[in-house]
Automatic annotation (TrEMBL):
Domain Activator of Hsp90 ATPase homologue 1/2-like C-terminal: 23-159, 190-321
Superkingdom as given in the UniProt entry: Bacteria
Family (UniProt): Belongs to the AHA1 family.
Protein's UniProt name: ATPase
Matching SUPFAM superfamilies: Bet v1-like
Cross-referenced InterPro entries: ASHA1/2-like_C, START-like_dom_sf
Coiled coil: none
Organism: Microbacterium ulmi
Length: 325
């Protein structure tokens, strides 16, 4: 993982993150100063950032918001203080309300981003300066250490060409913690079509089949916030009991992101939270599915069913039966 250290210094009122990357300084600089690349990693998993303003000049400002899978929102703004390409820049970082005004009761902080060559790649040193010990403690208590680590650890996927990053890796499963799993798969096709393939019943029935021998016989989808969906699979040869899943759409931001609940049909068991994001680069689309399980036991039980293998079979069909048509 890129992040090598996150330290607090109560005496000097600082929080410092250090991360190393196998990419030149100029490439890392570009990732932090292009808002479309920055928003791919600035928010931690499940809280992606969207930058609505980005005036990258001394005295200019940037505004962004992050939205959780359940629709909670956090907003922030930067005032650019100093810019020294490609060695670094500094900002005044402020929590904002829905109207873009500073949020009462929350601190403003000076953040310094420094980039330097290191071990054939580059090193980021990000130091945040606080005005009081209380402000430092408040920010740490809000999860700044964990959140910033998870966020910056996503940067490797941004620094590489998308195809180079995903080449030959198929469907990848990463255990982020006891209850969160991230699944990624590159699809050779445009994001709009990949989005449609996830939400239109006639397209879903062409690819979301899992292992050979199964058919998706029911695909009912109301892809609106508050809408519901239901899937049911049957085995071609019979003799094996069918199964299904159902849930509700919580968040829809077409064609970029959708969040749904999911539980097995006909059961009262706990549901998962499925956060689907699509990112397109040069005609290829990276699918990222962040799954939140109710507990570690449920996570391990579902992964042990061979879920990732079934998803890879389905994604392969997505490319061959839908995207290539």
């Amino acid at each position: 993982m890129p992040v090598t250290a996150v330290t607090t210094d109560p005496e000097n009122l600082t929080l410092t993150l250090v991360a190393d990357f196998a990419a030149p300084v100029e490439r890392v600089w570009k990732a932090f100063t292009d808002p479309r690349q920055l928003e791919r990693f600035w928010g931690p998993p499940g809280w992606p950032a969207i930058f609505t303003d980005f005036e990258f000049t001394p005295g200019g400002s940037a505004k962004y918001h992050m939205t959780s899978p359940k629709g909670e929102s956090s907003r922030g703004g930067w005032e650019f203080l100093e810019i020294d390409p490609p060695r670094g820049f500094s900002v005044l970082d402020t929590f904002l309300d829905e109207d873009g005004a500073p949020l009462d009761g929350f601190p403003s902080m000076r953040m310094v981003f420094g980039f330097e060559s290191a071990d054939g790649g580059s090193r980021l040193t990000n130091t945040t300066y606080f005005t009081s010990a209380e402000a430092l403690e408040q920010t740490v208590a809000m999860g700044a250490v964990e959140g910033s680590t998870l966020a910056i650890n996503q940067l490797d996927a941004v620094l590489q060409d998308l195809r180079d990053y995903a080449l030959g890796k198929g469907t990848r499963t990463e255990l982020l913690d006891d209850t969160h799993v991230r699944i990624t798969r590159l699809i050779e096709g445009p994001r709009d079509l990949v989005w449609r393939a996830h939400h239109e019943p006639e397209l879903l029935k062409k690819w979301m089949l899992g292992p050979d021998g199964w058919q998706l016989t029911v695909a009912e989808v109301d892809a609106r916030p508050g809408g519901t969906y239901r899937y049911h699979w049957e085995h071609d040869g019979g003799g094996r009991e069918g199964f299904g899943f159902e849930g509700e759409s919580l968040l829809v931001d077409a064609p970029r992101r959708s969040v749904t609940t999911e539980r097995m049909s006909g059961t009262d068991g706990p549901s998962t939270l499925n956060d689907l994001s699509l990112y397109e680069e040069d005609g290829a689309t990276l699918i990222t599915l962040l799954i939140e399980y109710p507990d570690k036991e449920t996570r391990d039980m579902i992964l042990a069913t061979g879920m990732a293998d079934g998803m890879e079979a389905s994604y392969a069909r997505l490319e061959s039966a839908v995207i290539s048509v």
